């Protein structure tokens, strides 16, 4: 039997506790779904982040090794609308940073009858991320 897809997307460059909590929360809330993680390709990641530590292939390997992640897809488009149209997930998850913001992929979600959920809370802080990035630069 084919299981429905729950999709989340992001750069996922330096994995932090907020990312892990997001993946665990998705798996916990949707145990009968395939968790597919869409990762921004190298070009887009470079546009979104001040500095990108890992290539898309490396980020995909890291995320794919996390328990509960069924599949990782690297997408090169500026937003995940095309990926949503191709995969036709039943559920699309955005992290807490996107709550109360307009998301460009909403039209694609409506086209494929995909529900959008905002999951998680900000549990990490910028000083933690800055320390991690400083270690990566060393």
- Give the ordered list of helices and strands: EHEHHEHEHEH
Give the CA-CA distance, first to last residue. Answer: 48 Å
Q: If classified by CATH, what would the architecture be? A: 3-Layer(aba) Sandwich
Q: What fold name stands as the CATH topology?
A: Rossmann fold
Mean pLDDT: 86
> How is the biggest beta sheet arranged?
5 strands, parallel
Strand fraction band? 15-25%
Indicate how many domains the architecture comprises.
Answer: 1
Q: Give the full name of the CATH homologous superfamily.
A: HUPs
Structure, described:
This protein has helices at residues 17-29, 42-48, 56-64, 81-87, 106-111, 126-137, and strands spanning 5-10, 34-40, 71-75, 91-94, 115-118. Helix content is 39%, strand content 19%. The chain has six helices and five strands; from the N terminus they run βαβααβαβαβα. With 138 residues, the chain is of the alpha/beta class. It has a five-stranded parallel sheet, sandwiched between helices. The N and C termini lie far apart (48 Å). Strand 1 (5-10), helix 1 and strand 2 (34-40) form a beta-alpha-beta unit. It has a single domain, classed as 3-Layer(aba) Sandwich (Rossmann fold). The mean pLDDT is 86. It is globular and about 35 Å long.
Keywords for this entry:
5 strands; 19% strand; 138 residues; Rossmann fold; alpha/beta; single chain; 5-stranded parallel beta sheet
Quick rundown:
The chain contains six helices and five strands; from the N terminus they run βαβααβαβαβα. The protein has helices at 17-29, 42-48, 56-64, 81-87, 106-111, 126-137; strands spanning 5-10, 34-40, 71-75, 91-94, 115-118.
